[in-house]
């Protein structure tokens, strides 16, 4: 298994397109591993006004940016349409109105140039961001942590996904955002908590939801409520909580559960690699704890560089390369699917 | 010149290929189905049926709104992307102006409208004379009762065109009475061939990248944000 001399090592050039949330992105990736271009038009400044992503506003921006990012991606890659083998596009999950722009734009490109159209599951994109930075060794356990997802996925080979654990309530990134709002931190809250946690001490006792002993599922709503209660109780007693200490304590609690469950799964499934992916993979606290745990267990670890943790199209092109080589393709009736399931994929 | 017309701005979905004065093909449906699933297959089919490759097109004409936000975006995204990537011309035409063309044989005011919920309509005032239909007032989003009051004051025959006529015929009768003419059954679907024909006569857009839908309305969150900012 692994990357050695398989059909997944063929020469390819794929244009990736990503519009599932608030980034309009296009990228060209060679052989599923080498980034030729990676263009992201972020809408973060626009959504900042509202304290979160507004779907209708996101969809409007996608229409404004779509052809621009595609043009820049080809230019940066010094590629022409005839250099490409396929167009890979995020089909879901995500905001339905946002997904539709990428999907329909990609279909138009596919028809115009007679190129195969490869639908990609957004989370597989986050996983394959790792292949742009190094090797993937199978079997592996992938921890997916983002604003919408917290999942442990077992991959026995390229393009094979088995969910062994998932959140039962809030996603990790969602908990970060809500806690940031409680602490009056600016949007987006995740990076702010990470920054603040570095300056604080994890000296406030907060719960960790381990659930059943053999479960790889997660739960963060109890922790989130505990943070809100801590702030609330202090206020009632006329005291203030040290924000940095609370951020550090909260972050430690989240990271502790994420790392412990991932390492337990890695042992139980006898994997050759642990992989971390998704927006929260940019969290410094998580990166260093995971690195330490993997080193102690002598387990190879892969985390994408910061630039590839947030939504981008290079990761979609990388995942799309696997789909393309497996023969996955869609016709002109392809639709965006907000609740797309990775296991059916 | 070969023009591909694309309209998914409302419930009616239409695509057509027009070669100068000849309508080579036209496909229209008026059913509640998903434009995101059906529009590209319809474009693929009409091109195949008229033996044209995407590259054989010279111009794309798209109904740029008003209408359903999602529907307008699907049409505009596809039209924009095709025009940009194939290096073809792009023209945007009002969805209401396309519908108003169905009043060409009428002499007098033509009033196309699309229901916009909560008593509102997307509408415009057009005038038809000697087979030419031209805009008199720009398209807008307005309360239907206010609009009808204004129209009644014109004191001239008004031809109403809309697939949502059933829903509002009583109100039209109440405000406009005998001035109101209701088009025949076949007059209420916007025709993509009319869109192509209008598109043939317009100047193409200068910069395809900057082409955007005509929503005629801010996103709700944005309107609220602006209102709040003005208050403070
Ligand atoms: Zn993501």
UniProtKB/TrEMBL annotation, chain A:
<dbReference type="GO" id="GO:0005737">
    <property type="term" value="C:cytoplasm"/>
</dbReference>
<dbReference type="GO" id="GO:0002949">
    <property type="term" value="P:tRNA threonylcarbamoyladenosine modification"/>
</dbReference>
<feature type="binding site">
    <location>
        <position position="311"/>
    </location>
    <ligand>
        <name>Fe cation</name>
    </ligand>
</feature>
<keyword id="KW-0479">Metal-binding</keyword>
<feature type="binding site">
    <location>
        <begin position="144"/>
        <end position="148"/>
    </location>
    <ligand>
        <name>substrate</name>
    </ligand>
</feature>
<feature type="domain" description="Gcp-like">
    <location>
        <begin position="34"/>
        <end position="317"/>
    </location>
</feature>
<keyword id="KW-0408">Iron</keyword>
<dbReference type="InterPro" id="IPR017861">
    <property type="entry name" value="KAE1/TsaD"/>
</dbReference>
<dbReference type="Pfam" id="PF00814">
    <property type="entry name" value="TsaD"/>
</dbReference>
<keyword id="KW-0819">tRNA processing</keyword>
<protein>
    <recommendedName>
        <fullName>tRNA N6-adenosine threonylcarbamoyltransferase</fullName>
        <ecNumber>2.3.1.234</ecNumber>
    </recommendedName>
</protein>
<dbReference type="InterPro" id="IPR017860">
    <property type="entry name" value="Peptidase_M22_CS"/>
</dbReference>
<feature type="binding site">
    <location>
        <position position="194"/>
    </location>
    <ligand>
        <name>substrate</name>
    </ligand>
</feature>
<feature type="binding site">
    <location>
        <position position="190"/>
    </location>
    <ligand>
        <name>substrate</name>
    </ligand>
</feature>
<keyword id="KW-0012">Acyltransferase</keyword>
<feature type="binding site">
    <location>
        <position position="126"/>
    </location>
    <ligand>
        <name>Fe cation</name>
    </ligand>
</feature>
<comment type="function">
    <text>Required for the formation of a threonylcarbamoyl group on adenosine at position 37 (t(6)A37) in tRNAs that read codons beginning with adenine. Is involved in the transfer of the threonylcarbamoyl moiety of threonylcarbamoyl-AMP (TC-AMP) to the N6 group of A37, together with TsaE and TsaB. TsaD likely plays a direct catalytic role in this reaction.</text>
</comment>
<dbReference type="InterPro" id="IPR043129">
    <property type="entry name" value="ATPase_NBD"/>
</dbReference>
<feature type="binding site">
    <location>
        <position position="122"/>
    </location>
    <ligand>
        <name>Fe cation</name>
    </ligand>
</feature>
<feature type="binding site">
    <location>
        <position position="177"/>
    </location>
    <ligand>
        <name>substrate</name>
    </ligand>
</feature>
<dbReference type="InterPro" id="IPR000905">
    <property type="entry name" value="Gcp-like_dom"/>
</dbReference>
<feature type="binding site">
    <location>
        <position position="283"/>
    </location>
    <ligand>
        <name>substrate</name>
    </ligand>
</feature>
From TrEMBL, chain B:
<feature type="domain" description="Gcp-like">
    <location>
        <begin position="31"/>
        <end position="225"/>
    </location>
</feature>
<dbReference type="InterPro" id="IPR022496">
    <property type="entry name" value="T6A_TsaB"/>
</dbReference>
<dbReference type="Pfam" id="PF00814">
    <property type="entry name" value="TsaD"/>
</dbReference>
<protein>
    <submittedName>
        <fullName>tRNA threonylcarbamoyladenosine biosynthesis protein TsaB</fullName>
    </submittedName>
</protein>
<dbReference type="InterPro" id="IPR000905">
    <property type="entry name" value="Gcp-like_dom"/>
</dbReference>
<dbReference type="InterPro" id="IPR043129">
    <property type="entry name" value="ATPase_NBD"/>
</dbReference>
<dbReference type="GO" id="GO:0005829">
    <property type="term" value="C:cytosol"/>
</dbReference>
<dbReference type="GO" id="GO:0002949">
    <property type="term" value="P:tRNA threonylcarbamoyladenosine modification"/>
</dbReference>
